[in-house]
Task: structure prediction
Amino acid sequence: MTKQELLEIALCCNRCGTCRGVVQDEIPDVAFATQCPSGMTLFGAYEPSGLMYMARGIAQGDLKWSDDLAKVLYSCTVCGYCDDFCQRGYRHVPAITILEELRSMIPARLKPKSMRKAADSLSIPKNQKLGVLKSFGVFDVTGNKKAHTIVFGDNTLLTNTPKLKEIGFILQKSGKKVGCLISEPLPPVSAALVNGGCRKELENAMAEIDARLAKHGIKQVLVYNPESLSVLQRFSNSTVEFVSIISLYARMLKTGKAKKIKLGPVTYQDPCHLGRYAKEYAAPREIIKKLGLELKEMWRRGHDSLCCGAGGGVLADNPALAKRYAGNRWYEAKATGAKVMITACPYCNANLRQAKPKDIRIMDITSLVAQAYGYSGKEASK
Ligand code: SF4
Ligand code: SF4
Result:
């Protein structure tokens, strides 16, 4: 994008400021009145309209990159609320495009350390554990093997044996023939590349993914990590269907063969990359219902949900700030009276966990589904 193009889209924002807050007339608690994680915590320039104004300044040359500008830019979780909200009929500002463009323009010396190393997120660890899935009947798609559906070895799964066991167990219960590129995994793309402004690396990785999916005749890819799901959906040029693995759980639970889970009332955190980016709001709620759980929704939910604070690389770069953002979400979760917060994203889980109040639990939806099908944690040794 040229600076003129950036200026033209940044000028779409008239700094009305409405995307900093919520749209409803009645607010149950003044603490719920604002919506942008960085704006509600740090104010002013950190609000969406401040960031859009910053884009104008950079495009026009009135602002020069500095440590202070970098600090503002990397406090944004790229949660997508301002983009989603504005596209609903205000000024149609493509805020995510603007924020991602700024992240690709910022000089490398001003990027936080984690962002400078974002391209490393494509490395496959030597001790990757995807082979665990074979114990549950998931077959290795190597050589010239064909597969209709595979599970994607994302960067939160590659060395996560307990989660791979849970997923393998659920896939086995589904009765669906599922493969995985186990011995030669696909590049584990995630939002880290977008956050770090690694456009060339992302383009190359996606070209390799598209080519290898075509070679194996793959039509559907099940994805656990919402940050990988949204990147695959946005940047693939193939006709392959990329779906959240929880949509499979929701379909399985319709048959009613799982047992009910005994827990107190629960609430659900919509992960930004599953909700606002991938538009999957229904499946987690269907799962919670089928598990026999009482759902106490937070006031800000669905496309108006409040980000947990992990995204945009904030958790990786500035965990203390991410923890402050998470505190805002817990305040609202506690107001529901729920005893358990359910998440469908490993980053939401990690960030919310670091600010978790003592008297409420946090659980991953995959673990709950595995339990409902009788997973005891020992099955992989068979
Ligand atoms: S992004 Fe849209 S809603 Fe937000 S301040 Fe700009 S014009 Fe207003
Ligand atoms: S993407 Fe989210 S954190 Fe960033 S400015 Fe918009 S609302 Fe705020």
